[in-house]
Structure formats: C-alpha cells, structure tokens
Specification:
Blueprint (H helix, E strand, L loop, with lengths): L11 H16 L6 E2 H8 L13 H13 L3 E4 L6 E4 L1 H5 L3 H13 L2 E2 H7 L9 H12 L10 E3 L10 E4 L7 H41 L14
Antiparallel strand pairs: 1-3, 2-3, 4-6, 5-6
Amino acid sequence: MTPSTALRPLSPAEARVLSTLMEKARTVPDTYPMTLNGLLSGCNQKTSREPVMNLAESEVLEALDGLRDLGLISESSGGRAARFGHQFQRAYGVPEQSAVLLGLLMLRGPQTAGELRLNAERWYRFADISSVEAFLDELQERSAEKGGALVLKLPRAPGAREQRWAHLLCGPVDVDSLGAAGATAQAGGLAQRVTTLEAEVAHLRAALERVCADLGLPAPPKADGAAPE
C-alpha cells in the first residue's frame, strides 16, 4: 500500500524499536513477533548498532505507542505476553529490498552501498553493489505523492573513496555533523591501525635483535638510520 502523504518523522527511540523488529523478523524468525523483554534487549544491543542506546522499558513502550498510531506495528496477545511485529512495507509502500536498506540505516547509521550490501547478508542477498545503489537512488528520488525521499546521499567525506547514505525517516539530517562524524570515525580508525602496525614493528624488531644477539651479530640499525646504542 502506498501512502498518499508522508508519515511524520520518527523519534530516535521509535526508529530503533521499528528497525529492531525489522531485523529480528528476518534474522531470528522463531522469536518473532517479539515480546517487550526481547524487544528491549534487541534495542539495547552493543553490537550492530549505531549509536548504541540504553532505552528504558518506559521509553520502548512510549515508542510502541507512537508507532502504533502511525500504523507501523501490530500487536498480538497470544500466550502469556503481548508480542509485537512491524508493518513497515505496508505503511511506507516500499519493496522488501528498500525496506531492508532503510532498516539497516536506522540500526547502523550512515553507510556506503558496499557496507549496506555486506550488512544486509542475513536480511536479504543483493546480487551486487549496483543493485543496492539502484534501490537507494529510487528511495532518494521518491515522489512527493508517495511521501517524498526516504534517503539522502551524503557528500564525500575527506579521504573517503565512497559516499555514504543516510535515512530521512527521522526528518532532515544535519549533513555537516554527519560528515564531521564520518571523518572523525575514519581518523580514529586510521590512528588505531597505525598504533597496531607500530606495535607489530616493535615486536618484530625485538625478535630480530634477539636473533642477532644469539648469532653474535650487530643489532640492526634503527629506522632513522642511527646506530644502535
């Protein structure tokens, strides 16, 4: 079903609850629809989440109320506890592939098409990156009659090879802050790799010095060419 008007922007908590339901429906169908306890645990996972959240039960319940008003979730009362499921595709009028990409963007934050294809492996297997890009382009060019664009292609971050995509389900995004966050994350990752490489080089040098000492050979020169002390 294609909505005639855009749904109101979701709150961060509503987006987390909705995307968690979308994830678990595809990755652990045996526990779906989800209980409140299971949903709370899924929302607050420390892995595969950006940002990591620490929602209280009351916040999840409030988010469920808001999503129910938008027609984005369903509730069943079979068994001892209420269970919740999502109605994402029906409410937004998008195909499964687009729903998968939007769910991942809500869960993990801005990502490149390549990252989305890799992260979607347990949800849906895209044939190639161009297939992912085609669905993203379609979501970005979505007409006003269908509710407007649902994703935005972000400007290329300094030093990045690919542009990232962000969802618009929570309203317009601050492109500058997202770009700065991406650059900071990239710089942090580079610094970590440099630290790791330096530690490995130091370990290898120590091993080489021990070998030279055992063989009665001079210690190898330092990287700057200075003679060893």
